[in-house]
Inverse folding.
């Protein structure tokens, strides 16, 4: 690497010189010339820096130093750990487990000996302690602060310089001198901006909790999305144990990565093999049940799609999709009607992904269509079958990405047969030895024939 260029700048008047001088050539002051590393900006007379284009090759790369959140699943969603100075928004419905997740994280980071400040605006320090005890997380490097005035919070942050700051939640903090109430759009925006400045200025990673309510009455996460470095949504069914942390934006890693957790009485536990968990309660060989292989970020995840198709009692048929895109399900039903000839017009259809998982990848199309066909025809899909493929409007089965990874996961979990797009199967290495049989299909009709009539 080239040695960094330096020059000398007078700390009084800003005059520059290439060589060091005892006396400033500009104002004549003695001993004020200080060495500065030249950066790709030039000083304007008023002290503002103007940007100049630099060769991309010459842009210096500082290695990104991440630190672990203490949870493999959380780290995965973040792209490998927490980056100092980054702003991470964790959004989700009230009661889903945001405070639990970030308190656990705060504790685990503090346990490595680094100082962590947890600011609570919703619960009293006693309540936080109670929860921490339940989680077995009482590190001596973990500070808790019950405060909602952001200027006060900033004072403490500047004095203590924690490595990680948690704000629970953005809807409770406020900046003085603004007419609007905490939680209003203006306050949320202002507070986020301030937190952004503090984070970048002091290099403190900041985790911000934001509630999302279904009716959207509280201003919040949506508004902050473009300001922060990473946006993670914590989702799941409060009545289920499983929680999914989904990355929807990440400046320092890939998005659409998911982390899976199991909410237990002692906090959130990482789920290392989500496929096993999602398939745990599967009723093998049941009518209307199909296992699909979806890519969630860089990880293949198997899940069970269930469909129940019953004759409509009166009037217009009911359609319901949970964990899947409603419009996509409607489209697949239309394709089944028109291209395969299933008379679904007079049928109610309920389709869902078991276990509270949500999938929006087109590669599950084939599985969804097969589940509907299976229920309609009252024929089960044989146990051991996994379906992968996107379905087009003419009923063709289109290629998907990363079939090999999906295959590996299905094989690992003991599946014996995968129905996959012919376009993908043709490109597979025939030399690979597999315990799993891969059947390439070109159309939905063909897939139905193989799976339901075979
Ligand atoms: P919480 O983190 O308070 O949710 P949020 O901050 O998103 O509003 O989590 C609340 C729920 O989690 C509550 O219903 C109790 C449950 N919970 C557990 O099941 N186990 C635990 O160890 C903890 C701390 C909470
Ligand atoms: Mg909370």
């Amino acid at each position: 690497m080239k040695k960094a260029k330096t020059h000398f700048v007078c700390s009084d008047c800003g005059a520059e010189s290439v060589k060091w001088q005892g006396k400033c050539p500009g104002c004549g002051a003695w001993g004020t010339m200080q060495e500065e590393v030249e950066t790709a900006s030039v000083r304007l007379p008023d002290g503002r820096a103007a940007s100049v284009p630099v060769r991309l090759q010459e842009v210096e790369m500082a290695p990104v130093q991440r630190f672990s959140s203490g949870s493999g699943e959380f780290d995965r969603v973040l792209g490998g750990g927490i980056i100092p100075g980054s702003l991470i928004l964790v959004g989700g419905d009230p009661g889903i487990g945001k405070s639990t997740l970030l308190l656990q994280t705060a504790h685990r980071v503090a346990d490595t000996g680094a100082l962590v400040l947890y600011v609570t605006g919703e619960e009293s320090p006693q309540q936080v302690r109670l929860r921490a005890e339940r989680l077995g997380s009482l590190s001596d490097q973990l500070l808790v602060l019950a405060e909602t005035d952001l200027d006060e919070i900033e004072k403490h942050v500047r004095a203590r310089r924690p490595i990680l700051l948690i704000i629970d939640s953005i809807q409770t903090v406020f900046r003085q001198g603004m007419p609007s109430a905490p939680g209003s759009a203006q306050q949320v925006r202002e507070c986020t901006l301030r937190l952004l400045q503090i984070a970048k200025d002091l290099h403190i990673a900041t985790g911000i909790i934001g509630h999302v309510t279904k009716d959207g009455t509280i201003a919040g996460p949506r508004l902050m999305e473009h300001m922060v470095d990473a946006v993670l949504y914590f989702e799941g069914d409060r009545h289920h144990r499983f929680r999914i942390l989904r990355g929807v934006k990440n400046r320092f890693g890939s998005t659409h990565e998911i982390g899976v957790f199991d909410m237990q009485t002692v906090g959130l536990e990482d789920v290392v093999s989500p496929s096993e968990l999602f398939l745990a309660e599967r009723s093998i060989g049941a009518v209307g049940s199909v296992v699909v292989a979806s890519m969630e970020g860089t990880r293949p995840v198997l899940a069970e799609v269930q469909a129940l198709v019953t004759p409509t009692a009166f009037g217009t048929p009911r359609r319901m999709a949970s964990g899947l895109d409603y419009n996509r399900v409607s489209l697949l039903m239309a394709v089944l009607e028109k291209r395969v000839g299933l008379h679904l017009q007079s049928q109610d259809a309920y389709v869902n992904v078991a276990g509270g998982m949500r999938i929006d990848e087109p590669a599950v199309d084939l599985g969804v269509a097969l589940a509907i066909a299976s229920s309609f025809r009252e024929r089960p899909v044989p146990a051991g079958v996994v379906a992968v493929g996107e379905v087009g409007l003419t009923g063709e089965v289109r290629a998907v990405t990363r079939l090999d990874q999906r295959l590996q996961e299905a094989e690992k979990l003991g599946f014996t047969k995968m129905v996959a797009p012919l376009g993908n199967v043709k490109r597979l290495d025939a030399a690979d030895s597999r315990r799993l049989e891969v059947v390439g299909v070109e159309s939905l009709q063909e897939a139905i024939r193989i799976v339901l009539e075979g």
Residues 92, 94-100, 131, 134-135, 263, 265-267 surround thymidine-5'-diphosphate (ligand 1) (CB under 6 Å).
